Amino acid sequence: MQLGAVLVFDAGPLSLRHGGIDVDRLRAWTSKRSAELPRLLERRTPSAWGVLEVFRPDPDFQLEYHVRHTCLPRPGDERALKRLAARVFSQELDPGKPLWELWLVEGLDAGRFALIGKCDSSLLEPGARSAGGLWSAGEGLVRGIAAAAAPPRLLSRVGSGVRFALDLAEEALVTPEAPLGRANDGPHRRIDWLTLAGEDLAAIRARLGGSERDVVLSALAGGLQRIAARGAPAAELGAVRVATPARVAGNTTVPRFRLKLDAPDARARLFSVRAASERSARDPGDAPESPLHELAELSRAAAGRRADVAALELQGFAAAPSLLGSRLRSFVPVAPPLPGFALEVAIARLGDARIVSLCSDAARLADLAPLADATAAAFDELRRVAAQPPDKPARKASARRRPRDRRIEAEV
Length: 412
What we know:
The structure is a single chain. The protein contains 11 helices and 16 strands. It folds into 2 domains: about 1-140, Chloramphenicol acetyltransferase-like domain (Chloramphenicol Acetyltransferase), CATH 3.30.559; about 150-385, 2-Layer Sandwich (Chloramphenicol Acetyltransferase). The strands form 4 sheets. It has a 6-stranded mixed β-sheet with strand order 4-5-6-1-14-13, sandwiched between helices. It has a 6-stranded mixed β-sheet with strand order 7-16-15-12-8-11, sandwiched between helices. It has helices at about 25-35, 65, 80-90, 135-150, 150-175, 200-210, 210-230, 265-275, 290-300, 370-385, 405-410; strands spanning about 1-10, 40-45, 55, 65-75, 100-110, 110-120, 190-195, 240-245, 245-250, 250-255, 255-260, 310-315, 320-325, 325-335, 345-350, 355-360. β13 and β14 (about 325-335) form a beta hairpin. It has about 400 residues and is of the alpha+beta class. α6 (about 200-210) crosses α10 and α7 crosses α10 (about 370-385).
């Protein structure tokens, strides 16, 4: 499973006099980090049994192969960077080499550069086996078989089978009408993203309620509604199914709910998402090691859940870090292609901002830019609703005194 991120930095001290970026300093930094993380120098090879895989040092390791250098036509904008990122993530990692690549991208406007990093999720597994012997691998295999044969584990597997059968029954009985493609999963990716201001998110939540995920999914529903409404009545839009992995008490759960696309306005759309979603609180005592570790874990949990949209919510960075003195300006997580999903949405924090990335197979959604623009427009609609003054309660009609007839009074 291949995942990664697109990071945009200010050039800062990495800029050269002719306007380029010092790739030699980046390679020297990566080489130093490789000594601390030996997995970056190892390649995956099958064991003698052909069942388990172990990691052994790559005798032909070349840093220049893994730390690559490219340039956008100047002045490069985000749209050009998105197209390049889609091409990079469409290419499979070479299984005969260490499973990671880091692309330095020059040519961005406003004195910036980008890093496109991708790796196999096996590099992020804390229990992955390094080269060291087949005995430990065989011992782990025996333990795994013994654990699977234990009655509690067996009952758990039976329960999983029952749940899978129920999921299949749901698939057979309910087929939502959604504005998402139904083509087979392919190797070609499409990537886009948008940035939401943290103060706007806070204002929407303070006025309308809901979690950050609810607000983002409400904006996504508005974007999908705008895309699908071209030529289709709102009543015929139906809904999409969303799987949202979350960490609860140290475990990763994957609740699913329906995201309706026929809400009459932004306020009703957010209230619908709030009512439908199953909120899950993170366990602060069992936080993942890094955003990429978290992305790998959530992606594995979402795989095979049989829904339309996988919405992954990451912790990200509370404050923008720096790389060799160059400050990080944008962090875009790139979710791996998940079988059965038409769209992967990852929500990451960078300081006060929230970055929402959209990833899809090109055969399903050929262009994500209209969806990203429509989602941004739906978020702006929510922001305007939240900025409106609260409705004043209607005044209670006072009982008017019935006028007296003076002529009757005179006659009396």
